[in-house]
Amino acid sequence: MYVRAISLFCLAVAGLFSLSMHQATPPEAPGAFMIVLGNLQDGGSPHAGCKRECCRDFFDQPANDRRVVSLGVYDRTAKQTFLFEATPDMPSQMKMLKTFASDSVGEAPGGIFISHAHIGHYAGLMHLGKEAMDARGVKVYTMPRMKNYLENNGPWSQLVNRKNIALQELNDGVPVKAGSIEVTPVLVPHRDEFSETVGYRIRGNKKTALFIPDIDKWEKWDKDIVQEISQVDYAFLDATFYDATELPGRKMEEIPHPFVVESMAKFDTLPARERSKIYFIHLNHTNPAILPDSPASQEIQRRGYHVARFGDILEL
């Protein structure tokens, strides 16, 4: 299933982005390739205000593989890049995507697909504005409520008015072409304070991926997640919390997500081939599966699933 799965360790040297250990390059073949640019929940890690062991050491020594959830696509056929989600880590993620693709593409991606208006998924758009790179006409694909939100609320409206971004309206279930790939938004139930929430089906010439970083519970969706998995080659699924014990004192029903243990229980009856399609993503800073050698990660692997890791490369 993998074309290549590598771990990237990114260093800032004299203000320049560089890659240590490995240089991520897609295979020399036509088509499209996907790279995991981040696997964390919106607040990232270390998480603001966290005093627990999961974050404590990372304030002084940040881990180079801890980035907020994002997928990058390099479409070699169209010589374009696309970004899924505009995270607070977007500057390094854009640079990593450009480096992954080659110098033949621009600093900004050819398009950015946003799932919803929670901070980890759209706040990175600020880096396209006047105070940062002052980009020109970057296509940003959104659903109608999200489009209205960006157009009518500052500072995002400034990006629209200055033509730093060019909003492209999406509709539920209607595919759009982005280079040679096809992207279809699918509405999912989530806390929709400012916008609707979508996942994406991403179809390349050879493979198809499902990307659902946020959903309340699988049972609340009007689609059958098992059926959706059967129709794709990769399924990047919400894994915000491993189980219900991670946030003592918080009412988990106020921040509903499918616990990893719930998802595994639901999918354990699937054939091994179907389970191997699943890549858990969007991990909260408290989720023990962030650590590759943790008992939680080992249990996920033992049961035939994956945790999406920074730098994983897959063919589309």
Structural class based on helices, strands and sheet pairing? alpha/beta
Low-confidence stretches: 1-23
What number of domains? 1
What's the total count of β strands? 17
Euclidean distance between termini CA atoms: 10 Å
Q: Indicate the percent of residues in helices.
A: 10-25%
Q: Give the percentage of residues in beta strands.
A: 25-35%
Order of helices and strands: EEEEHEEHEHEHHEEEEEHEHHEHEE
Using only CA atoms, what is the Rg? Answer: 18 Å
Whole-number average pLDDT?
A: 88
If strands are numbered along the chain, what order do they take across the biggest sheet? 1-17-4-5-6-7-8-9
Based on the structure given, which CATH architecture is correct? 4-Layer Sandwich
Question: What does this entry look like structurally?
Answer:
By secondary structure, this protein is an alpha/beta fold. The protein has a single domain, classed as Ribonuclease Z/Hydroxyacylglutathione hydrolase-like (Metallo-beta-lactamase, Chain A). It contains nine helices and 17 strands. The chain has helices spanning 53-56, 90-101, 119-122, 144-152, 156-161, 225-230, 260-267, 272-275, 295-302; strands at residues 2-5, 9-13, 16-20, 32-38, 70-75, 80-84, 111-113, 138-142, 165-169, 176-178, 181-187, 198-203, 208-212, 234-238, 278-281, 306-307, 312-315. The strands form three sheets. Strands 1-17-4-5-6-7-8-9 form an eight-stranded mixed β-sheet. Mean pLDDT is 88; it is low at 1-23.
